[in-house]
From TrEMBL:
Highest taxon listed in the record's lineage: Eukaryota
A single GO molecular function term of this UniProt record: ATP binding
Region LID, annotated ranges: 110-120
Organism: Canariomyces notabilis
Positions bound to ATP: 15, 17-20, 111
Name listed for the protein in its UniProt record: Adenylate kinase isoenzyme 6 homolog
Length: 174
């Protein structure tokens, strides 16, 4: 499929900094921030609310239908804590953000996450769940793991993705 602009997934455990990265990247590049959280809420792509986890139970088919037209046009930054549901043909780059356990713990406590959800997310980060999911779902060469502990990390990550975008445009110029 040919797109005039690429699609990027920014993924990682909740609290790693996906939304912060996507917002900055969208501001710098003009690419569109597709917040899956927001789409799930706005377009009701869910099967109800999970009280224990305090989150929507996502209906993935409905979600894919809701974003398909937009994503197929290209130029989207998809912000979501999973990546295996998006067809490989839609995606040009998968960025997996990573953080150390103590930092993640502090960020999730700040958000007043329920205990079960907090523990599950910490375990998921320790066990590289999102990195593995990305590697299992996409070609190795489009998956990049980046550290997101400090504001400087975020700056350099966004710089790096901007460089990648520039190169992609050069490689795909018609
Ligand atoms: N690289 C970073 N340096 C400093 N603070 C950060 C960094 N990344 C994220 N944060 C802070 O951590 C908190 C969580 O960030 P953010 O909401 O972007 O995470 P998220 O991965 O999008 O979470 P969710 O999946 O729940 O939406 C915010 O308070 C944000 O300011």
């Amino acid at each position: 499929m040919s797109r005039s602009l690429p699609n990027i997934i920014i993924t990682g455990t909740p609290g790693v900094g996906k939304t912060s990265h996507c917002e900055l990247l969208a501001e710098r590049t003009g690419l569109k921030h597709v917040s899956v959280n927001q789409v799930v809420k706005d377009k009701e792509c869910h099967e109800g609310w999970d009280e224990e986890y305090q989150s929507w139970i996502v209906d993935e088919d409905k979600l894919l239908d809701a974003i398909e037209d937009e994503v197929k046009q290209g130029g989207c930054i998809i912000d979501w804590h999973a990546c295996d549901l998006f067809p490989q043909s839609w995606i040009d780059l998968v960025v997996v953000l990573r953080v150390d356990t103590a930092t993640l713990y502090d960020r999730l406590i700040e958000r007043k996450y329920p205990e079960a959800k907090l523990q599950e997310n910490i375990d998921s980060e320790i066990m590289d769940v999102l990195l593995q999911e990305a590697r299992d779902s996409y070609d190795e060469e489009i998956v990049v793991e980046l550290r997101s502990v400090t504001a400087d990390d975020m700056e350099s990550n966004v710089d790096r993705i901007e460089q990648w975008l520039k190169q992609w445009k050069e490689n795909n110029a018609s």
